[in-house]
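Glycoside hydrolase family 2 TIM barrel-domain containing protein: structure, please.
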Amino acid sequence: MEKVITQEWDLSVKSRKFNFDWKFLKDDNPDAFKIQFDDSDWRSLDLPHDWSIEGAFKQEYASSTGYLPGGIGWYRKNFIIPDSIKGKKIVIQFDGIYKNSEVWINEQYLGKRPYGYSSFQYDLTPFLNFETQENVIAVKVDHSDFADSRWYPGSGIYRNVFINLTDHVYIKPYGIFVTTPNISTSEAEIQIQTTVKNEYNIEANFQIEHQIKDATGKELIACSSVETITANDEQDFSHSIFLEQPNLWSPENPYLYCVETKVIKDGEVIDLEITPLGVRSFHFDVDSGFYLNGKNIKMKGVCIHHDAGCLGAAVPEKVWHRRLQLLKEAGVNAIRMSHNPPAPELLDMCDSYGFLVQDEAFDEWEFPKNKWVEGWNKGEPSLDGYASDFSEWAEIDLRDMVLRDRNHPSIVFWSIGNEIDYPNDPYSHPVLEDRYKTDKPEAKGMGDIAKRLVSVVKQYDPSRPVTAALASVIMSNETEFPDALDVVGYNYQEFLYPEDHKKYPNRVIYGSENGRHHDAWLAVEQNDFISGQFIWTGIDYLGEARGWPVRHATPGMLDLAGFKKPLYFFKQSQWSEKDMVHLGMTSIKKKNPDQIYWDHEVDCEWKGNEGEIVRVACCTNCPEVDLLLNGESVGVKKYEDFPSGTIYWDIPYSEGTLKAVGKRNGNICCTHELKTAGEPTKLQLHSDTITLKADKQDVAHVEVNILDQDNNLVYDADNQIDCVIEGPGEIIGIECSNPASHQDYKATYRKAYHGKLLIYVRTTDQPGTITLKTSSVGLESSFIVIKVK
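Here you go.
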């Protein structure tokens, strides 16, 4: 039981997490919403929680959702509220429940929310007990139609829960909207719209005060006004502040101010909101692409899904921080949230790291897409999914996404859908010729729905453009769908860029989802009118599996553990401003020998048969590279001589050290080495931190490497590694990133993949010392110590 008392809860703080000490049942019970229900034998846990990731991989589940189970689950929480909070408004906020959630408080039904990615709130105030009488909140989650998605969605209350406390005169949830309509180097106009609600039966007189603070918290400028709202009414209030010498937000300089908004009544602050403020201007030009703060830049983007391998959909914040830092290091400056609204804290991170974001609402509209059960395009697909709820809920879900996210400076466009026009899945059109299916819905209906969704977005945010990712532009061009959009995304259709730019001279075009190879980037680099690309994907993700035993998709720059794959370095060579060079080995092809695909043809190791001719692949952003084998140069090659984007040498293999030396103007600017590894002899642990907070949320990433006697990584080692933890911490997941591994994700052992494992360690609420020990048969064991403060 969690007792909410005033000593724990500063009444001046509006919002507090409500994640701890819940009860969970992975089953259905029609009486579980009742106050007197006995949940003593239920499991105790903290949120966020994803029960699907705790299940066993089974071929009977759907390949599209990663061969993991769905089902029905219940959550309950008992809590006490002291009398001192009487008279306040108490609201519960769920950031995401997958899916079909229903919520009760003290047996009072609060409502249902089908879409698993929406954030929503319920007012608890009329139904609460105070002082010594307990309150019981109950949540039912129904994910029994588990083959309902084209990727792994997770199950349960997988995002944060908050309790929000206000007066009955208060800022409406997501009721502040900050824009920067006029910006110059000397001054920025900050417009602030605030929606205030009065739930008293009498008129309310109050003051609204806005303070602009810099990144250190120093107040720069303020404004205020005295306002009145009649009884049981709400009203919008607008203010403008002019900020001198603004520090402009950009990927290179993600400077964040904040707007602190207070509602003051009778000299007391009765509500307070802090809103991030990134001062920036942007626009898309039909002929020259994307401009940020007057500067023409290309979006070097990735698409991402929301899971983190062994952690499922309940991803701790530190995990996203690590992943975003790695993407930033590769030169990524843009992220497409595929294909649903993300966790709010992920957008906060994008603001602070300087990513340009496409926030996306839906993967399907009123007709369902195929969700493959047996494997990609195999057998009978499932047609479960959001389509069954679209008509009733789409405008509500879209509205709530825009209201929740519209103050993030990172977001530069809204997407109303992904591949809605996938040919024959579900729509069709005669322009498809021999692929036209008369039994499929007619594509022309997409235009009317697109217009309706765009109008919803514009109602709540007229400041940003609206886009969608088109899978069949040829078909969509026969409808009003593209014309309804401000910016039109093309998925894997680079061949149409020049033709459509001429044919539709007023259409802004960009790559909303793209292949990972060199030609796809050249289509951006060589066409001024293309604003950028979003490759599929930044990170590997669960689900969308090609068929058993493969359980997850592998197109990422990072694998499920967040380790860098060969593709990472290739994209870094295209996107990063920092000098880099990287080596790998690939097969010698007779057909298209210059086309080397770093996403599936390159291994970053040096291993072979003595004297055999092997191909060494090299990606770099340096003008030339010298390749040395055991200290001897085997030739300097120039990047400009390899239009496919990869330098390569065909040389006799010899055990030892292979070294690439990147050069610019004759000077060495970067190097990379591969060394022949011997037999595995030892384990090595490395943690990204040696100090954690005792808050039940802080996480350490502990990397396990299998090394030979000379401390070289043994790339092909797959030894099973056993893990033991002591002290105030727990292992919440072990990830190897092997797409064919079906080992239990909650076990304390796992086989390595490419010589590596990642162990996630989370703290309890007690200080002390965590000792993590790893062992493997025939290998020297290793341990690491982490302090918890």
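Notes: Confidence is low (pLDDT under 50) at residues 1-7.
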